[in-house]
Specification:
By secondary structure, this protein is of the alpha/beta class. Helix content is 39%, strand content 22%.
């Protein structure tokens, strides 16, 4: 009898559905099937591949309401956000594919009777290993450029959200040739075998510890890697900041997706001259948030994905308060499955909540006298995904000093158009988005020859 992976609603523990755990012995045959399919998929024109993606995207759009409901039930986010995630993938697919196409077109250089082509050819097989917090988007952002480049995909979703990934793959497989997109279900063992199999690239989003393990396993055959490995994003609030705007952002960024987001604000450094007013406003706005299940229209903060994640957050809060942090809202008593919206002040660098990724609805505030010291503390983390600065006169210079792949001034870190999603330090290895990001899913080949060569 084959093992079954059961998916639960994190808000009430109800069973959502079940998938069959992939037998470890089958993974190599799945990869071989992907290899066979790639010879066809990589051999057709890029516009034909985009045509397949377009057909799948149209089906995705028609089913966005149902898929959004599944995302919300399985992950815990409210229904509007779940539907928005599904719709975003549907509407983004062809745009992302066309952007990848533009990046992958052959570049031609000619001079003195000689010609050089810079080609972007398929790599082969891409293993996409995804987390649970954005269970459709995180895989989609990797899958589309990889497919556009001519690669086949083996998707290994989080064991917390297998139903969403399977539903996404099922829609694409209504139109894709057999073997182009396959799914492997399971936990650590399945992921490890997939990483060590005959794939050419591993695109992973998840924890630093797992990323390091993947890097070690991939090193045996020097596989390509694109990895986003979390963050501990700082927000610096300068003395001339718009206090209301900064407080609204601090709360919204800390609480988005129940704090379960890689670019959530996890550390707030505020000039002591405005700290009293800032903290009052933060508490005011944080108090407006309500916890609830995915189908509660009045709830903005859903359940934590599982008991282990919830307990990690509560343990950080308990340790911080024991060491002198002051709870302005929330504290250490939280309902089963949830973490209440929480605001802490007097947070110091000796506390785990200032050092380790929290991934929960907590605003952690530290007051500063010396801006340069605050910048140093903000940059002391091993992570460097995003950073935000609110203020005016010194905002630009301060932002330039932030050690992060993405920096926002008086706004979040998201860039305009087809820009990279990129981390620095231990937040990332490679990146996706933008022409250079799309090209990471391709093999570069330089072809040089006399311009008059018959071809």
């Amino acid at each position: 009898m084959r093992n079954i992976l059961t998916s639960y609603d994190p808000g009430n523990g109800e069973v959502i559905g079940k998938v069959t755990i992939t037998n470890k012995a089958e993974i190599h045959s799945i990869v071989e099937k992907a290899r066979t399919a790639q010879s066809f998929w990589g051999g057709i024109k890029i516009d034909e591949r985009i045509g397949y993606i377009d057909k799948a995207a149209k089906i995705l759009a028609k089913n966005a309401q149902e898929l959004g409901r599944l995302i919300s039930r399985e992950m815990g986010k409210n229904l509007n956000r779940g539907i928005g995630e599904a719709q975003g993938c549907a509407y983004d697919a062809v745009y992302r594919a066309e952007a990848a196409k533009e990046a992958l077109l052959t570049k031609v250089i000619q001079s003195g009777g000689q010609t050089t082509h810079i080609e972007y050819n398929p790599l082969g097989i891409c293993a996409v290993i995804t987390p649970w917090n954005y269970p459709m988007s995180m895989g989609h952002w990797m899958i589309i450029p990889a497919l556009t480049a001519g690669n086949t995909i083996v998707l290994k979703p989080s064991e917390e959200t297998p139903m969403t990934a399977q539903a996404y793959a099922d829609i694409f497989n209504q139109v894709l040739p057999e073997g182009v997109l396959q799914v492997v279900h399971g936990a650590d063992e399945q992921g490890q075998i997939l990483v060590e199999s005959d794939v050419n690239l591993i695109a992973f989003t998840g924890s630093l510890a797992v990323g390091k393990d993947i890097m070690g396993r991939a090193a045996k055959s020097l596989k390509r890697l694109v990895m986003e490995l979390g963050g501990k994003d700082p927000l610096i609030v300068l003395e001339d900041a718009d206090i209301d705007q900064a407080a609204r952002f601090a709360v919204a960024s800390s609480f988005e997706n129940s704090g379960q987001m890689c670019v959530s604000t996890e550390r707030v450094f505020v000039d002591e001259g405005i700290a009293d007013e800032f903290e009052k406003k933060v508490v005011r706005y944080a108090s407006m948030y309500r916890i609830g299940t995915w189908n509660d229209p009045n709830a903005q903060i859903g359940p934590m994905i599982n008991t282990k994640q919830r307990q990690k957050i509560i343990s950080q809060l308990e340790e911080a308060i024991k060491k002198g942090a002051v709870p302005l809202l929330g504290g250490t008593a939280h309902p089963e499955r949830f973490v209440l919206p929480t605001v802490l002040t007097n947070v110091s660098s000796s506390m785990k909540i200032a050092l380790d990724e929290t991934f929960g609805p907590v605003v952690s505030i530290t007051r500063y006298k010396d801006l340069e010291a605050a910048v140093r503390e903000a940059n002391s983390s091993d992570f460097g995904l995003g950073a935000v600065v609110f203020g005016h006169k010194k905002a630009w210079k301060t932002a330039q000093k932030m050690e992060a792949g993405m920096v926002g001034i008086n706004q979040g870190v998201g860039g305009l158009g087809d820009t990279p999603w990129v981390g620095s330090k231990q937040s990332g290895y490679g990146y996706h988005g933008s022409p250079d990001g799309h090209r990471q899913f391709a093999q570069v080949r330089v072809m040089s020859f006399p311009s008059n060569l018959s071809r």
